[in-house]
UniProtKB/TrEMBL annotation:
This is SulP family inorganic anion transporter. Keywords: Membrane, Transmembrane, Transmembrane helix. Its main location: membrane. The chain crosses the membrane at residues 14-34, 41-61, 81-99, 111-135, 155-182, 194-219, 239-262, 282-300, 320-349, 370-395. The lineage of its organism: Bacteria, Bacillati, Actinomycetota, Actinomycetes, Kitasatosporales. It comes from Streptomyces xantholiticus. Signal peptide: none annotated. It is found in: Membrane. It comes from the Bacteria.
Length: 487
């Protein structure tokens, strides 16, 4: 039996794996640096995402690794709990994902409002852009999202007075320009724009001797620091559990939404959501044991995999092998990469997270959903990632409850005889003020017939309020309110 007959798609998968590797390499390094951890840890997560998660069932063509969407959360976690605790957080988040997959909760992530997810990504994108603008100038960014945005003008003024900062900004801006223009240039599809931009920035920095900071290299084995007893001791701090839950929920939501998008790009087997959630959990558990970054499925790498002609999971596994070989054999190459070039890549990635094209059409057709998107994004910038997402989810639930409590109150007054009031729909406490305002405005000296037979649902608060109103109306000496009960 030949290799071709045993692996009929080996040629396509091999070619696709090289493309995905070239796309993933600068992103793995850039996400790690932006997260405030050694660059090699981004490569470790990419390797685990390719080889460990890549071998597992779920989605055959989806590619996992460190994602820009978790950059802000990781940075905050490292700042609050320290780098050694990151492994514990990622390990616990992975175990939580495994449990959610075992409990078959994967499909429920599809029920999360798309507006909340897009608002989350938009908020993350804004924080990434603001933070990486400082990094592009070689300056230290403020801690909070609001301070990052407010401090940008002052940072620009400082940069204009420094030759080193201007050189650094030039490299960052040039990187963004190359990425934007790369797709428009002929015969460039074989080389990903991010890789080309980093390569050109590195060559320019070396050729002109630009005074810009470069990636600090420790070596693969030096960067891997499995969490020790002290790191597990951080679990005594209740605050860490909110971060663990945030990691698990946001990584799961991003991965499963990515899976749904990837399924629309190919005609192969569909994603098994619970199995994919467990695969992501297993990968994150391994990343946690190695002290690396958390992983999610990443739509940029996944779409590149599909568009490059991948047919099976072999392509994503091979891309992990290429990342491992690069990290093991060419670690010194990382030390040549200018930090502002990586900042430029992250600014570009953050910009793509903001759904500019969707906001205006969404506002025209579903203003409530557009409002949820904007409020979620603003909350993430103003407060933090976890609480911002919770605010978005709460708004989404409140909007759904409001819409579900649709009620119609029709009053028929013929001038003589009883006034007829017909209620139909769903009577919940959310609509109670409107119902009572209308009923209390009815003539006090006329008998009233209240027909509730058109109601599909009448909650306890509404039932009690209607009974109290009927008693009050009858106290004026008119005939008792005649109520036709809901069926």
């Amino acid at each position: 039996m030949t290799a071709t007959s045993k692996f009929p798609y080996l040629k396509q998968d091999f070619a696709a794996s090289l493309v995905v590797f070239l796309v993933a390499l600068p992103l793995c390094v850039g996400v790690a640096v932006a997260s405030g951890v050694p660059a090699e840890l981004g490569l470790v997560t990419g390797i685990v995402g390719g080889i460990v998660t890549g071998l597992m069932p779920g989605s055959s063509l989806q590619v996992s690794g460190p994602a820009a969407g978790l950059t802000v959360l990781v940075f905050e976690a490292v700042r609050e709990f320290g780098l050694p605790a990151l492994g514990v957080i990622v390990l616990a988040a992975g175990l939580l994902q495994l449990a959610m997959g075992a409990w078959k909760l994967g499909r429920w992530f599809r029920a999360i409002s798309v507006s909340v997810v897009e608002g989350m990504l938009a908020g993350i994108g804004l924080v990434i852009i603001a933070g990486q603008m400082y990094a592009a100038a070689g300056l230290k960014a403020p801690a909070s999202g609001i301070d990052k945005l407010v401090g940008l003008p002052q940072a620009l003024v400082r940069a204009l007075g420094s030759t080193e900062a201007l050189a650094s900004l030039g490299v960052g801006a040039g990187t963004i320009a190359v990425m934007v223009l790369w797709k428009r240039m002929p015969r460039t599809k074989a080389v990903p724009g991010a890789l080309a931009a980093v390569a050109l920035a590195t060559l320019a920095s070396l050729a002109f001797g630009l005074p810009v900071a470069t990636v600090q290299v420790q070596g693969l084995l030096g960067a891997i620091q499995p969490p020790g007893a002290d790191a597990f001791g951080e679990l005594a701090d209740p605050a860490i559990f909110g971060t663990i839950i945030a990691f698990a929920l946001i990584a799961s939501a991003e991965s499963l939404f990515s899976a749904a998008a990837v399924d629309r790009l190919h005609d192969g087997p569909r994603t098994a959501y619970d199995k994919e959630l467990m695969s992501q959990g297993a990968g994150n558990a391994v990343c946690g044991l190695l002290g690396a970054l958390p992983m999610t499925a990443v739509i940029v790498r996944s779409s590149a995999n599909v568009q490059a002609g991948a047919k099976t999971k072999a392509s994503r596994v091979l891309h992990g092998v290429w990342l491992l070989l690069f990290a093991a054999l060419l670690p010194s190459a990382l030390a040549l990469i200018p930090l502002p070039a990586l900042a430029g890549i992250l600014v570009h990635a953050g910009w793509k997270l903001i759904p500019f094209r969707q906001i205006v059409p969404l506002w025209r057709t579903h203003r409530g959903e557009a409002l949820i998107l904007v409020v979620t994004a603003v909350a993430i910038v103003a407060v933090n990632m976890f609480e911002g997402v919770l605010i978005g989810l709460a708004l989404s639930i409140a909007k759904t409850a409001w819409e579900a409590s649709h009620i119609k109150l029709e009053v028929i007054d013929k001038g003589a005889g009883p006034v007829q009031a017909h209620l139909s729909g769903n009577a919940t406490f959310l609509r109670l003020p409107k119902i009572l305002d209308t009923l209390e405005a009815l003539p006090q000296d006329r008998p009233v017939e209240l027909d509730l037979s058109g109601l599909h649902h009448l909650d306890h608060a509404c039932r009690t309020a209607l009974e109290n109103w009927a008693d009050r109306h009858s106290e004026t000496g008119t005939e008792p309110v005649k109520v036709t009960s809901a069926s």
